[in-house]
Amino acid sequence: MKTAQERTAMSPGHTEVTDIESNDCRAVSAILQRIGDKWCVLIINRLGEGPRRFNEIKRMIGGISQRMLTLTLRNLERDGLVSRTVTPTVPPRVDYELTELGRDLLVPISALGAWAIQHQPCIMKARAQFDANEAAQTPHQERISAG
């Protein structure tokens, strides 16, 4: 006779989480965290237009610090999404461009960006409505807890 655990493991709708799947989830989570970062998305979009020098990228992306741009480019390079080419001139010329993997990622990132632009008015309206509802409920909640 099968134990309860053996019967449950193979039943429809139940999956057994193995160490491998757990590790895969952590790896995927780390990748999504990296490519979901606002600076990564902006940099990948800009590099989708072609190779760029560091200062070009910095000028194109308002609000990013030199340190954050350096760290983000380094992480994108580490992940195989961006390549860095140094030309031995005085001063050295450094160009960044998307790798094949980075160009492949540009497709969903561009689609996500287009979705955000298209739906920005709806999201802003929903936020305003939510905030108004929250503000209207706050005095009522304070009266309940005070009473």
What does this structure look like?
The chain has 147 residues and is mainly α. It has a single domain (4-146), classed as Arc Repressor Mutant, subunit A (Orthogonal Bundle), CATH 1.10.10. Helix content is 68%, strand content 10%. It contains six helices and three strands, in the order H-H-H-E-H-H-E-E-H. The chain has helices at residues 4-9, 19-35, 38-47, 54-60, 66-78, 100-146; strands at residues 52-53, 82-87, 93-98. Strands 1-3-2 form a three-stranded antiparallel beta sheet. It starts with a helix and ends with a helix.
Assign the CATH topology. Arc Repressor Mutant, subunit A
CATH architecture: Orthogonal Bundle
Q: Give the tally of β-strands.
A: 3
Q: Describe the main β-sheet briefly.
A: 3 strands, antiparallel
Kindly give the count of domains.
1
Helical percentage? 55-70%
Note the quaternary state here. Answer: single chain
List the helices and strands and how they pair.
Layout: H1 4-9, H2 19-35, H3 38-47, E1 52-53, H4 54-60, H5 66-78, E2 82-87, E3 93-98, H6 100-146
Antiparallel strand pairs: 1-3, 2-3
